[in-house]
C-alpha cells in the first residue's frame, strides 16, 4: 500500500512538473508572438531590422575593439529566433559590438561548439567525419556565408559570455582551437579567446539532470518514465512534423539528424520514438553532457589557458537553517524554479550506486539556483581543480590575471539575468555593465597604446 502511494505521488509530481514546464514554454512563445504582432500592428511606419553586432555584408575594421559574443544555454535561442524576444533580455544593446549566435538548443556541447566556430568564421558547419559517423548524423550543417567575424584569429581575439551550458560550449570551442580541430584552419590556437565570462555556467554537471530523468548509474541513459522522456517525445514529433515557419521561429537544432517526415517517413519516426535512432538514442544531445559524469568526461579534455581571462557569476538561492538547506526566498525565486530549488537541496545520490567521483558528498551539492548546483558554477573542479579565486568586491581582483577562474556569488535563480529584465531590477544593469566594462577596460592581451605625452604606470 505504501509503495502504491509513493508511486502515485511520484506520478503526480511528474504530471505537475511537466504541466508547469509546458505552460512556461507556451508563455515564452506567446510573449514572442505578441511582441511581434504589436510591432506589426501598432508601428506608425515599417521598421527596418537592426543587426545587433556586425552587418553580414561588412567586415569590421581590424583595429577596432573585439566583439563580445553572448552564448545562450539549454533551450535557449539567439538573434533571429522567437521574433524580437531577446534571450539576454536586451543586454546586447549595451554595446555596439555584440553578437548573439543561434545554436542548437538541445544539441550536444560538441555540436554547439562546432556551430559557434563556423557562425563566426563563416562556411558550412563541419561536425567532423569521425564524430558524425559515430553518432549517426550528417557531417555538414548550416551554411554561414559570410561569417559574422571572418577575421577572427590571434590578432583579432574575441570576448565570450556564456549562460548556463553556453559557458561549457565556449570552453570546448577554445580547446578545439588549441587542438587545431577545424579542417582547413591549421593556424588556430587558444589565444583566439581573450576572455570568457560565465553567468550561472555549468562546469561540473548538475544533480538536476538525475531528478529530471537521467540515470545516476551512468549519466547517459534515461529513466523510462520521466520529464526528459516527455521532452524527448515532444522534440521528435516537433522535428518530424517539420512545419517550416514554426521551425524558423524556434528550432531545437537537430537538423543534421534529418528527423523530418520528408527524410525518414513513418518508420523512421517509429524508430526514433522507440529509442532506436536519433540523437537521444546515440547520446549526442546536451543532457548527458550536463550530468556529473558527462561533465567530468568533458573536463578530462579541457584546459585552463594561461593567456585567457576567466570570470564567473555564480547564482545561488538557498540558505541553511539549523543545518538544513532550504530556498532563501519565496518572492525572489521564479515559480518555475522554487520547487526545483527545494528538490535539489534535498537530493541524495542513491546509496546502491557508485558515486560519480572519489570523495563525493551530497552536502557539497545542496546549494543551488534551481537548475545548477553552486559547486558546479564556481570553476572547473572535477576531476582536477583549476586555479580559482573567490571575489567579494570587484576591486579585489584588479588588475585581473589570466589563467585564473575568478568567481563571484550572487543571490538569484538560474534565469534571473535572462529573458525578463524586470525580474533582476537594478542588478541586471550592475551585472551586464560590469561584464562589458571588464571586457572593454580591464582585459588586454597586449598593453593599451601609449598616447603622446602619456606614460603608463
What can you see in these coordinates?
The protein is α/β, with parallel strands linked by helices and 457 residues long. The chain folds into two domains: 1-33; 68-208 and 290-442, Alpha/Beta hydrolase fold, catalytic domain (Rossmann fold, 3-Layer(aba) Sandwich), CATH 3.40.50.1820. Helix content is 37%, strand content 12%. It is built from 15 helices and eleven strands. Helix 4 links the parallel strand 5 (158-163) and strand 6. Helix 2 crosses helix 4 (165-178). The radius of gyration is 22 Å and the shape is globular. Residues 45-63 and 448-457 have low confidence and may be disordered. Pfam families: Lip_C. It is found in: Secreted. Its main location: secreted. Keywords: Hydrolase, Lipid metabolism, Secreted, Signal. InterPro entries: AB_hydrolase_fold (IPR029058), Lip-like_C (IPR056304).
Topology:
Layout: H1 2-42, E1 68-71, E2 98-99, H2 109-121, E3 123-126, H3 129-135, E4 140-144, E5 158-163, H4 165-178, E6 193-199, H5 208-212, H6 227-241, H7 244-249, H8 261-273, H9 279-282, H10 286-290, H11 292-299, E7 309-316, E8 318-321, E9 324-327, H12 335-346, H13 374-377, E10 388-390, E11 405-411, H14 421-424, H15 426-442
Parallel strand pairs: 1-2, 1-5, 5-6, 6-7, 7-11, 10-11
Antiparallel strand pairs: 3-4, 8-9
Helix pairs in contact: 2-4, 6-8
Give a summary of the structure in a few sentences.
The chain is α/β, with parallel strands linked by helices and 457 residues long. The chain has 15 helices and eleven strands. The chain folds into two domains: 1-33; 68-208 and 290-442, 3-Layer(aba) Sandwich (Rossmann fold).
Amino acid at each position: 500500500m505504501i509503495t502504491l502511494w509513493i508511486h502515485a505521488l511520484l506520478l503526480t509530481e511528474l504530471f505537475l512538473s511537466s504541466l508547469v514546464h509546458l505552460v512556461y514554454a507556451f508563455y515564452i512563445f506567446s510573449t514572442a508572438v505578441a511582441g511581434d504582432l504589436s510591432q506589426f500592428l501598432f508601428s506608425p511606419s515599417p521598421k527596418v531590422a537592426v543587426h545587433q553586432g556586425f552587418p553580414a555584408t561588412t567586415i569590421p575594421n581590424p583595429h577596432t575593439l573585439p566583439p563580445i559574443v553572448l552564448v545562450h544555454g539549454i533551450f535557449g535561442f539567439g538573434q533571429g529566433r522567437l521574433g524580437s524576444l531577446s534571450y539576454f533580455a536586451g543586454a546586447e544593446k549595451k554595446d555596439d559590438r555584440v553578437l548573439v549566435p543561434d545554436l542548437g538548443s538541445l544539441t550536444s556541447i560538441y555540436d554547439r561548439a562546432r556551430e559557434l566556430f563556423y557562425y563566426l568564421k563563416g562556411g558550412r558547419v563541419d561536425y567532423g567525419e569521425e564524430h558524425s559517423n559515430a553518432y549517426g548524423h550528417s557531417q555538414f550543417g548550416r551554411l554561414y556565408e559570410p561569417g559574422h567575424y571572418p577575421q577572427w584569429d590571434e590578432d583579432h581575439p574575441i570576448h565570450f559570455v556564456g549562460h548556463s551550458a553556453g559557458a561549457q560550449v565556449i570552453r570546448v570551442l577554445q580547446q578545439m582551437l588549441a587542438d587545431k580541430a577545424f579542417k582547413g584552419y591549421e593556424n588556430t590556437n587558444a589565444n583566439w579567446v581573450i576572455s570568457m565570462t560565465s553567468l550561472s555556467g555549468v562546469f561540473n554537471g548538475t544533480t538536476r539532470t538525475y531528478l529530471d530523468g537521467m540515470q545516476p548509474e551512468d549519466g547517459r541513459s534515461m529513466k523510462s518514465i520521466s520529464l526528459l522522456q516527455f521532452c524527448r517525445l515532444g522534440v521528435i514529433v516537433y522535428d518530424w512534423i517539420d512545419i517550416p515557419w514554426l521551425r524558423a521561429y524556434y528550432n531545437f537544432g537537430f537538423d543534421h539528424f534529418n528527423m523530418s517526415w520528408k527524410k525518414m517517413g513513418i518508420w523512421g519516426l517509429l524508430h526514433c520514438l522507440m529509442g532506436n535512432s536519433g540523437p537521444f538514442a546515440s547520446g549526442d544531445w546536451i543532457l548527458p553532457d550536463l550530468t556529473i559524469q558527462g561533465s567530468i568526461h568533458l573536463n578530462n579534455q579541457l584546459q585552463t589557458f594561461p593567456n585567457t581571462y576567466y570570470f564567473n557569476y555564480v547564482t545561488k538561492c538557498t540558505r541553511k537553517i539549523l543545518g538544513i538547506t532550504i530556498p532563501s526566498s519565496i518572492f525572489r525565486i521564479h515559480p518555475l524554479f522554487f520547487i526545483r530549488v527545494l528538490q535539489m537541496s534535498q537530493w541524495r545520490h542513491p546509496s546502491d550506486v557508485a558515486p560519480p567521483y572519489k570523495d563525493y558528498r551530497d552536502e557539497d551539492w545542496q546549494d543551488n539556483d534551481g537548475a545548477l548546483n553552486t559547486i558546479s558554477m564556481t570553476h572547473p573542479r572535477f576531476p582536477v581543480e583549476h586555479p580559482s579565486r573567490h571575489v567579494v568586491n570587484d576591486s579585489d581582483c584588479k588588475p585581473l590575471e589570466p589563467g585564473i577562474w575568478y568567481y563571484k556569488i550572487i543571490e538569484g535563480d538560474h534565469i534571473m539575468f535572462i529573458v525578463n529584465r524586470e525580474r533582476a531590477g537594478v542588478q541586471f544593469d550592475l551585472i551586464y555593465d560590469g561584464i562589458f566594462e571588464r571586457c572593454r577596460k580591464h582585459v588586454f592581451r597586449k598593453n593599451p597604446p601609449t598616447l603622446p605625452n602619456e606614460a603608463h604606470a
